[in-house]
Design a protein that fits this description.
The protein has 162 residues and is α+β, with helices and mostly antiparallel strands. It is built from 6 helices and 7 strands.
């Protein structure tokens, strides 16, 4: 009696039904992974420094050391922590991130050769005051940080009301 009860319990155990085993080391899931259920627009922002370019702008390159010396690096880190709890859609609607259709036509920076021409360029604004920002591009929910831009030279605009 006890043995048949254990077999019934094992057969009805939801956990054991989630997996089917084939062979010694192969496990196949019957249900999709959690990541597959989350829509792309609902995923939190992830940051990557894979394509970071510290050699630009050519006339005055910006590095983490320069940002640390000017007390911008800690504010940049705080901005990343703040943004890590948001989706791309939220950051765009709150105007923390701005996107562009292409690389800016009037820039002190040049398009890095190792980055595709058709990426969606963007910037993280207001790192410290109005000027300092970070430029990069977005693919899916990943913001690839490419340039530090403390003087607003990535997408230069005409000054207003001056």
């Amino acid at each position: 009696m006890i043995l048949s009860l254990k077999k019934k319990m094992k057969k009805n155990n939801k956990f054991s039904q989630k997996f089917s085993t084939k062979g010694n080391n192969y496990v196949q899931r019957d249900k999709p992974f959690l990541d597959e259920k989350i829509k792309e627009k609902d995923k939190f922002i992830i940051f990557s420094f894979k394509d970071f370019d510290h050699t630009q702008p050519i006339n005055s390159p910006e590095t983490f050391q320069i940002w640390e010396k000017e007390q911008l690096l800690s504010q940049f880190n705080e901005k990343l922590v703040f943004l890590s709890d948001k989706t791309i859609a939220q950051a765009l609607s709150e105007k923390i991130i701005t996107t562009y259709d292409s690389f800016p036509p009037n820039s002190d920076f040049t398009h890095p050769k190792h980055i595709n021409e058709d990426v969606k360029w963007a910037r993280i604004e207001k790192i410290s005051g109005q000027k300092a920002r970070v430029a990069g591009y977005i693919e899916n929910n990943v913001f690839y940080i490419v340039f530090l831009d403390k003087e607003h030279k990535f997408w230069k605009t005409e000054k207003k009301n001056t």
